[in-house]
Amino acid sequence: MQGNSKIRNVRKGTSPLEPLEEKVRAGERLTFEDGLALLESSDLLAIGAMADLARQRSAGDRVYFINNRHINHTNVCGNSCKFCAFSAREGAPGAYTMTMDEILAAARESLAEGITELHIVGGEHPSLPYEYYLEMISSLRELDPDVHIQAFTASEIAFFARRTKRSVEEVLLELKEAGLGSLPGGGAEIFSERVRGLVCSRKISGDGWLEVMRTAHKAGIRSNATMLYGHVETPAERIDHLIRLRELQDETGGFGSFIPLAFHPANTGLAELPGPTGVEDLKMLAVGRLMLDNFTNIKAFWIMLGIKVAQISLNFGVNDIDGTVVEEKITHAAGAQTGQALSRAELIGLIRSAGRIPVERDTLYNVIRVHD
Ligand code: V47
């Protein structure tokens, strides 16, 4: 205790972040300028300490993980996003689309291991019929009525609506009826139209992404939110993204977690970029925690961060370390060095050795088991 106050006294009067520390301590909402000051500061430990305080206040000492499996059903995509190494043109070498049997076999294998969530994201395939997706959800639901199906980014949902000439709401309600439980947070990238024009000009706009999420939340479908950082965006564009998420969360309360996604450059159209450093990763997670005062859960996706940075991030505002994952293709196509899977025991060990309480959760953050 004495040691702590000594550290604080040493800091006092020396950090330009001091007014922000006061605000965070008082639980005041941070402004755009505050967010920018945080991103532009190199005082990583001060930012981490603030984020840790905010995490402690809103999420306590429990760290969540989930027993889940990712399925990337197709890499065929017409969007050609520059940051993506996963996508392929229809008929190109390496292009694949899983059959219903293959999807069910992958799900069956992991259900036998006790997963509670299937996380399904794929390319925007220009010629797969919409019925493929509907059948996928209803077959998985039939296979296991209890597993939570978290499937299709807001961008994919908008794509289905365009293709079927129906409203986003109709598509969402039909998928929900078939067994869809919630939406993953992908496809958000950076909302700035400048950045989207440079890296994903064919994809849904930032406002479009937010509108699909608004519609989903209003239809009782919860979702996650992401931000892809470390490519051509500016600090101001990152903060703008966070504030737009915060505004929608104020309106709907439908986001379960925020996951900053660290850009991996290998094999992408932006391969000349270095990608974010470890310091940037930790800062981004911490700033996410500090700006998104209405999100309870900030998630470190260990696949992208690496296991060690993900573990350290538990001291930088993070209270969720994602899950077992099993198989992941998007980041691995772009050079991720992490393995494909972590066991429950490994996740529990990582959380425990960071001095926190591991809690297995379901998709909607209901507690399955506290490992204290
Ligand atoms: O939308 C694509 C991103 C997303 C690269 O909701 C890349 O819990 C890094 O959304 N380097 C898909 N990222 C993954 C995703 C996700 C992951 C984990 C958890 C959740 C969740 C969602 O991956 C895409 C895009 O933003 N991405 N290429 C790349 N080279």
Short description:
This protein has 372 residues and is α/β, with parallel strands linked by helices.
From the coordinates shown, what is the CATH architecture of the largest domain?
Alpha-Beta Barrel
- What percentage of amino acids are in beta strands? 5-15%
Instruction: Report, as a whole number of angstroms, the end-to-end distance.
Output: 24 Å
Give start-end ranges of low-pLDDT stretches: 1-10
Question: How would you portray this structure in words?
Answer:
With 372 residues, the chain is of the alpha/beta class. It folds into 2 domains: 46 residues; 308 residues, Aldolase class I (TIM Barrel, Alpha-Beta Barrel), CATH 3.20.20.70. It is built from 16 helices and 11 strands. A 4-stranded mixed β-sheet has the order 9-1-10-11, with helices on one face. Helix 5 runs parallel beside helix 6. It is globular and about 60 Å long. The N terminus is likely disordered.
